[in-house]
Amino acid sequence: MSQDIDYGNLMHTAMRGLIKTVLTDVSETGLPGAHHFFITFDTREPGVQIAEWLHERYPEEMTIVMQHWFENLEVGDTGFAITLNFGDAPEPLYIPYAAIKTFVDPSVEFGLRFESPEDELDEDELVEETIEVEEPEEHHDADVVSLDSFRK
To answer: How confident is the model over 102-151, as pLDDT tens digits?
Structure first.
């Protein structure tokens, strides 16, 4: 039996619980104010249900936007179902929480990022990537919580 506390998985579980709570509130009362969500998920994750044409177009990763029009939002213990409009064609989707890679609400500069071992960069790559990124002064990115510091 391991004596280590798996803080990374505990944080992922807590963050997915936060997403579930937020989506539950939205399903009951709608999106308040200017809130809207960008949700990026792994389309290869077991349990993801999207139309075949969407899977062909987004074979690895897809970002959805919950803002002006969505319906049939049903929040469950392991994921959520939603119908979104793609070019005037409503499409139902089911996204397990485990498939979510990022959850961002730009209206309040809030974001969560879930990283898998395949996503991890070594420290030198991370420093190089950080140095290369330049953004305009007036652009405000959402704060993103990264779990890298909790991993071994």
So the answer is: 999 998 999 999 876 555 544 444 433 333 333 434 444 444 555 555 45
Enumerate the β-bridge partners of residue 83. Answer: 71, 92
DSSP state letters, 7-25: HHHHHHHHHHHHHHHHHHH
Q: 139 vs 75, 98, 106, 110, 142, CA distance in Å? A: 32, 30, 11, 14, 10
DSSP reduced 3-state for 85: strand
Write out the two tokens for 92. 């139902």
The pTM is what? 0.72
Q: What is the dihedral of CA 93, 97, 102, 106, to 10 degrees?
A: 70
109-120 as b/e: b if 16+ CB within 10 A: ebbbbbbeeeee
